[in-house]
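B., you asked whether I could sanity-check this one before it goes into the benchmark set. Here's the sequence:
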Amino acid sequence: MPLRDVAEEICYTTAQLRAYPFLQTQADQHEALLVDVNQLTLDEIAILRAIMAAEARKLVVDDRLNGLSSAIAGTVLTENGGDRSSPVFHRYFGNIQPSRFNRPVLGVQLATMRTWVISLVQGSPGLQALGIQLSECVGEADTAEQNEAEAKRQLADFQIGERKELIEKVNGVRQGHYGQLAELPHARPDLDLPRDFAHRFFLRETGRRRPTIATLERDVGRLRTDLQKAEQQLARMIEESEAETRLREDAELAEAAEDLAAIEQQRAEAAARLAELQARRNEPSA
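And here's what the prediction gave me:
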C-alpha cells in the first residue's frame, strides 16, 4: 500500500476515534502513527527525487551523446567525401543510420560510444576534439547511471527496512485497537453500542469482517490508477528494450560484415599472390 494510503487510513481512524470521548487514548496512539508515516513519507520522497534527478541527468547526457554522435558522423563524412562505405565511417556506425543509433537512452549506445574515445583522439584534428568531448560525456553518463543505481538500491533497502518496520507497527496498533473496539459492545453495555461498532473505524477490512461497497470502490479506483501507470511504464520499457535489441543486432551484423569483408580481402590478396606465383612458374627459362 502506498504511504499516502496508509496516512489516509490513519487519518480516517483517528477522526472516528476522536468523535468518542471514551476513545481519546486510542486516538492519541493512532495520531502518533501519523507522525511516523509523515516522516517516512518525506524519506521516501527524498529517495524518489534522487532517482528522478538521476533519470533527468541521464536524458541530458543522452542528448549530448546524440549530438556528439551526429557531429562525429558529419565530420567523418566531410573528411571522406560523404562516403558512407569508407572504413572510418564503418568503424563507428557500420551499416546503422546515425539517427537510429541515437534512439536508446544510454544503454547500448553508451557502451558502443565508449569504445570510440581512443580511436577518435588518435584521429584527425576534428575527430580529436570530438573525442575529448566524448570522453567527458561518457564520464558524466557513468556518474548518472551510478547515481540512479545507488538511489534505486536505497529505495529497495528502504522498502524492506524502515518502511516494512513501520507498516508492521501500524498493523499491530490497528489490530489491537480493532480488538478493543470489537469488545466494547459486550464490555460496556451501558454505552448501547452496535455489535459491528468496530467496523466503522477502518476504511479497509480489519479482522474477519466483510468490506463495504464504498471501500471496494475506493480500492478498485486505486488499483485501476496503479494498473494504468504500470501498463504505461511496461510499454515504455518494452519499446526501449526492443530498440536496444535491434541496435545490438545491427551492430553485430555490421561487425560480422566487417569481418567477412576482411576475410574476402585476404582471400582476394591470397588469390592474387597465387596467380602471380603460378605466372612466374610458367615463365620460360632464360
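One thing to flag: Residues 3-210 form one domain. Otherwise nothing jumped out at me.
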